[in-house]
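Why do we bother with a discrete structure alphabet at all? Because it lets us treat a fold like text: something you can write down, compare, and reason about line by line. To make this less abstract, here is a complete entry for TIGR02677 family protein. Read it the way you would read a sentence in a foreign language you are learning: slowly, and without expecting to understand everything at once.
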Amino acid sequence: MRVFTTNKRRFVVHLRPEDVTDALRRDGGVDLSQEAVAAALESLAGWGNLRSDPDTSRVTTVEDFYRPRYLYQLSREGEAAERAIEVYEEEIGRRGELQAVALEDVRVRLRALRDLPARPDPAVVHNLLLELMGRLDSLAANASAFMSSLQRTIDLQDVDEEAFLAYKDRLIAYLERFVSELVVKQHDIAATLRAIESQRVAELLALAAGREAADAAPGAGAEAAVSPAAGEKLAVWESRWSGLWSWFTGSRGRPCQADLLRTRARKAIPDLLATISVLQERRAGRSDRSADFRALARWFAQAPTDEDAHRLWRAAFGLATSRHLTAGPHAADDAPPAPVPAATSWLDAPRVEISARLRASGHYARRGAPKRVRDRSGERELLARQVAVEREQVEAARRRLATGRAVRLSELGGLDRQEFALFLRLLGDALAAGPPGADGTIRTRTSDGTLAVALEPVDGLAEIVTADGVLRGPDHVVTIVDLTVPLAPGQQGAAS
């Protein structure tokens, strides 16, 4: 059958048995007798793979005329079967690839279609569309095959670990290069597709369909078949163009195929890194739970006696001798039960009465009157008074410091604990908000936005007397404004 398909590509339609014998001996290295080849050809003709016609071209005698001699050619069914086998073998052996070059070819041909004159040559249009759809089909088929094989690699199915670890860096670089190319080329291709008007697209597709319909072979009713043939060809080209559009352009609800491919390729990079980590851990001999259980199973299988297996069981799972339950309900006048030694068997140990509540909820409530609910209203009132006093002290400190006027630190005088705590917090916020502005002043606000602080250094040393000691440091002019109250006209600058 391969001899017949090879000769058909050379436009040789009929073959004699001796032609097939010579081709097998010359090309395939198979030395068969002509009788064996003739018998095989008859079987193929009987199965429908070949069609046999009487060979009367070289008849010279009456004996030759009555001797069965045939010419063989491929039948439609046999040719279809051979093509199916070729496609099957090609798909099985396809490794797949991400064709960044195909993206460039699609972009170039789309630009050529866009730049065609108003009345283009139908042959040029037809060739451009054929090349465009052919490159798109190749790109889609190879990308699908590559991503399928890549997923099998990530899942560690039928993969050579040593070979994978050897070329992992090139594979990741290959994915990164394709993703970067796809991002750039897809945007350009989508922009070119949108730039070609729908009416222009319909004209170009009609030219290609009309050119193909002109070559349609005549058949039954050929007199009226020209228009239907053109309509069918046009429908096929419209479907192809729709596929091209959906491959590179999408919407919010339906992403295009290029976006899906880019997302999958990006996701494959961290998946590959995770797979590499798993393989490295395997090679490093890192133990996991499944490996531990397998090792434990081997130890159990290798245990010489049952006693050794029991000791291994206790050592592996932390089992010791029997533990007896000693905590249980008992009356107040009864002595608590004596502890049972661990060496005592559970069969010989005294039984323990367990209440149904303990079995149901895991909690045991002793008999007796329930505890009275404690009245905590006094504690709550005390806490409320303490909070009110502290609030009053904080408000007093705010009124004492947040005057809205510029004051030197050396002029603040003595501060109580609440005032000093508020002052330290404001001073820390101002110093942390640096550096100072053009006029040398640091301006900031507290985190709650209620106080504005302006701090300007001046010459001199300041001392602030508190109940806990004296704070000494460089003197500053500080302005604290309470933003929760209306500002006076002179306080606008400090608050800003």
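What the structure line is telling us, in plain words: The chain is about 55% helix and 10% strand. Residues 11 and 228 are 30 Å apart (CA to CA).
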